[in-house]
Amino acid sequence: MGSSVVIDQTLDRQTFATAVLEASHDRPVLVDFFATWCGPCQLLKPILEKLAQEYDLTLAKVDIDQYPDLATQYHVDGVPDVRLVVAGEVKPGFVGMLPEPQLRELLGQWGLRSSLETAIALVETLVADKRYPEAKVQFDHLFDRYPGHGAVAIAAARFLLQIQKPEDALQILRTIEVGDSPHYEKAQGLKGLAELHALALAPVDGSEETTGELAQAFSRGAQSAVAGDYDTALKTFLEIVGRDRKFRNDGARKAMVTLFDCLGPDHDLTQTYRKRLMQTLY
């Protein structure tokens, strides 16, 4: 796990070179140039400490008022100013306050991966290889180690969908709160997909809603979505919208919107079928 080092006024340039530059050959170092009077610095501090633990980094905090020579040496013009030091090289970072999702994205651009991301990648490999009992054990460990973490909930929900347990997936997804961005947005898309899974697995009760021609088409669309054949699923749901938009309380259109959310706004299928849906509706 990562650690935190406070750089104070007793430090000279040689000590900084030892504590940060030389140490970065063994473990990457985040250098946080800050000031006690700086509001954004205080907001950023707990986020950096959290990420240092997750990404196994050393966090070096430099108070620019206590040690202005270092600030001058590294051309610090504003705070907070965060740099990454790897193998003795100080890399450009960012100045100002960044939200946690953007910080994680930046760390990824630097080629860094958190212990959580590594663990999730491992369990996703197990799922892809259909080693489901081993994946279940790993998820249990992840929930113990990272209680309430949205990324774990998202990965677990995808796993449950793959093993045909949409209701369990929905239960986990409901634990992700609105303020947990960006996991909440991903959860909303997966909730819709889980509902489609549930429809695809629903028993036939003999009613028109489950045995009629449109019902059979809707079931085929849901099954295509479950199988990951989103093109066929969207095409099927679009045909239902064109024939009877009121079927299942506008269910086909809602299913298409769910798949758009899962695919993302920039996906080719989203752009193609969103345009076709608008043409069909209007």
What's the quick description here?
It comes from Prochlorothrix hollandica PCC 9006 = CALU 1027. The protein is of the alpha/beta class.
* Morphology: elongated
How many E-type strands? 5
Total domains: 3
Order of helices and strands: EHEHEHEEHHHHHHHHHHH
| Residue share in helix | 55-70%
> What oligomerization state is this entry in?
single chain
CATH superfamily of the largest domain: Glutaredoxin
Q: Tell me the Rg in angstroms.
A: 25 Å
Mean pLDDT across residues = 88
GO biological process, one term: response to stress
Keywords: Disulfide bond, Electron transport, Redox-active center, Transport
Family: Belongs to the thioredoxin family.
GO molecular function: protein-disulfide reductase activity
Describe the structure.
This protein has 282 residues and is α/β, with parallel strands linked by helices. It has helices at 13-22, 39-54, 68-73, 100-109, 115-128, 132-145, 150-162, 166-173, 183-201, 208-211, 213-226, 230-243, 251-263, 268-281, and strands at residues 3-7, 29-34, 58-63, 81-86, 89-95. It has 3 domains: 3-109, Glutaredoxin; 114-197, Serine Threonine Protein Phosphatase 5, Tetratricopeptide repeat, CATH 1.25.40.10; 202-282. Strands 1-3-2-4-5 form a 5-stranded mixed β-sheet, with helices on both faces. Helix 5 packs parallel to helix 7 and helix 11 (213-226) runs antiparallel to helix 12 (230-243). It starts with a strand and ends with a helix. The model has no long low-confidence stretch (mean pLDDT 88).
List keywords for this structure.
alpha/beta, Serine Threonine Protein Phosphatase 5, Tetratricopeptide repeat, 282 residues
